[in-house]
Amino acid sequence: MKMLSVVLRNLFSPPVTRKYPQEIRSPFPATRGEIVFTVEECMTCRRCERTCPVGAIKVEIGPRLEVASAGEGQTRGAGRLIKRRYDPYKCIYCGLCIEVCPQGIIVFQGTHTSPATRKEEKVAVYTLGARKPAARPAEEKKEAAMN
After folding, report:
1. What whole-number distance in Å separates Cα of residue 26 and Cα of residue 140?
2. Which of 15, 28, 69, 87 is a good FRET partner for 143, with 20 to 30 A between their CA atoms?
3. String of b and e for 120-131 (b: at least 16 CB within 10 Å)?
4. Quick one: average pLDDT of 38-48?
5. CA 34, CA 111: separation in Å to the nearest integer?
6. Pick from 97, 99, 20, 3: which is nearest to 56 by CA?
7. Which residues does the UniProt record annotate as the domain 4Fe-4S ferredoxin-type (predicted)?
8. CA 113 distance to own-chain centroid
9. Mean pLDDT of the chain
10. Of 67, 66, 68, 62, which is closest to residue 81 (Cα–Cα)?
């Protein structure tokens, strides 16, 4: 009889949980959340890769290559092709990679990873060591004379 009263009470009471996709709870202040990389400022020291206890971060450094200038203000010069792989499904969100990063480019974002239908790594490919084209001395003199 006691079970019947519990069933009837739960049947006619409002739900205790949130309707997740429609109602998203704001994260708590100390929430670790999703790990985000700012690869433009990375110096590729690979400390994050060596520190990760589960191997969720992999950094592949390619051979030196010549980067061609594609136009005004584009990068050019010698550089290395870098491929950074991050697997959020392997990650245990311990924060060790964030602590050891000397540049501070790895941070916890306040949101959680969105639901997905398949597991995919996050891959960033960029060139390390490429630089903006320097102005030629003759052009600098012309610009200075015009001003």
Report:
1. 53
2. 69
3. eeeeeeeeebbe
4. 86
5. 6
6. 97
7. 33-62, 82-111
8. 11
9. 78
10. 62
- Residue 69 C-alpha from the chain's centroid: 27
Q: Which helix (H) or strand (E) holds 57?
A: strand 57-67
CA distance 57 to 83: 11
* Measured distance CA(48)–CA(113) in Å, rounded: 20
Q: What's the pLDDT at 122? A: 86
In the chain the first and final C-alpha atoms are separated, in Å, by 94
| Per-residue pLDDT band at 133 (split at 50, 70, 90) | very low
Q: Tell me the torsion sign for CA atoms 85, 91, 95, 100.
A: negative
Which CATH number among 2.40.37.10, 3.30.70.3270, 3.40.720.10, 1.10.287.110 corresponds to the domain 38-130? 3.30.70.3270
Contact 83, 62 (CB under 8 A): yes
Q: Answer whether residue 131 shows pLDDT above 60.
A: no
